[in-house]
Amino acid sequence: MKIAPGGKQTSLNEVSYDNGKFVVTYALPGQQLALGVADCPSGWFCFYENINFGYPRGKLSDCGQQYLGDYGWNNRVSSVDNSTTTPINYQDISHFYLFTNYNPGAKPSLGDANDKAAFVYRYC
User: Fold this and answer.
1) Rounded Cα distance, 108 and 102, in Å
2) Which of 1, 33, 111, 118 has its CA 20 to 30 A from that of 56?
3) Cβ neighbours of 98 (radius 10 Å)
4) What is the DSSP letter of 40?
């Protein structure tokens, strides 16, 4: 919560913001940091700070535009999983990109855009 004050600790390894619209999950001590597979709950858009879906993980459920910097996540996204039924775009300073599930270790279509997400937009 030092990076993004204003959150509320809701469990041993989770911090929620904006009444649960944005949730950050941290790896527990001894838990593997990189899962290799996404673990995003249905109905959420998840992004991971590390490749191979490595924690910490942020997740959003809200529609419309969200500024990731409000939660300390500006330019920190290295892998994503969209478990919603709607498309999601993200924007850096000057470009929009369509988020698809990806793992940068496999050289996804995002290429040089890795770690550049500042805003996300969920179409609902």
Assistant:
1) 6
2) 111
3) 11
4) P
- Determine the Cα–Cα distance for residues 91 and 63; give it in Å rounded to an integer: 15
Closest listed residue to residue 57, CA positions, set 76, 30, 75: 76
Tens place of pLDDT for every residue, the chain, 124 residues?
566 678 899 998 999 999 999 999 988 888 766 677 889 999 999 988 887 888 899 999 889 988 888 888 888 888 888 898 988 887 764 444 444 444 444 434 444 555 667 888 888 8
Going along the chain from its start, the domains and CATH numbers come out as 8-122 (2.60.20.10)
Kindly provide the residue ranges of all beta strands, DSSP E only, lying in the chain, ordered along the sequence: 8-11, 14-17, 22-25, 45-50, 54-60, 64-67, 79-82, 88-91, 96-98, 119-122
Residue located via tokens 């191979």: 52
Q: Using CA atoms, how far apart are residues 93 and 85, in angstroms rounded to an integer?
A: 26
